[in-house]
Amino acid sequence: MARPDWRKVVTDPKEVALFRALEHPDFTWRTLPALVRESEMPEADVLASLWRRQDFVIEGRTRPGEPVWTLRSRYWQEAGLPQILHMISHTSPSSR
Q1: How confident is the model over 2-49, as pLDDT tens digits?
Q2: Phi, psi angles (nearest 5°) of residue 7
Q3: Dihedral over alpha carbons 92, 47, 39, 60 (to 10 degrees)
Q4: Distance from C-alpha of 35 to C-alpha of 45, rounded to nearest angstrom
Q5: What's the first-to-final CA gap in the chain, in angstroms?
Q6: What are the Cα distances from residue 47, in Å, to 5, 18, 50, 51, 96?
């Protein structure tokens, strides 16, 4: 089942700016300062929106551990099979 497109769900102009920042063609992963700057939203509002819209975003970490975000659709589109294998290899086996 395909995930819904954020453009059909996100209507608040500030959140639209946030999602456009996540779609920036030059950057797959975006830091919190970049998202704050480009969306012109306070940090707390950016974090709240990212939390509220988890269906559309994935949080990752840089090597030093800094949180970064990308769109789920972009993550799967650009990463493909290696990401799926990584996810499977880091998933706990189900309880029996």
Answers
A1: 567 899 999 999 999 999 999 998 998 999 999 999 999 999 999 999
A2: -65, -20
A3: -20
A4: 11
A5: 27
A6: 20, 10, 5, 6, 36
Q: What is the C-alpha separation between 68 and 96, in angstroms, rounded?
A: 35
Torsion, Cα 50 11 80 93, to 10 degrees, reads 50
The token pair that represents 26 in the structure block:
């030059």
Amino acid at 7: R
Domains of the chain are: 7-82 (1.10.10.10)
The residue with tokens 């990308």 is 70
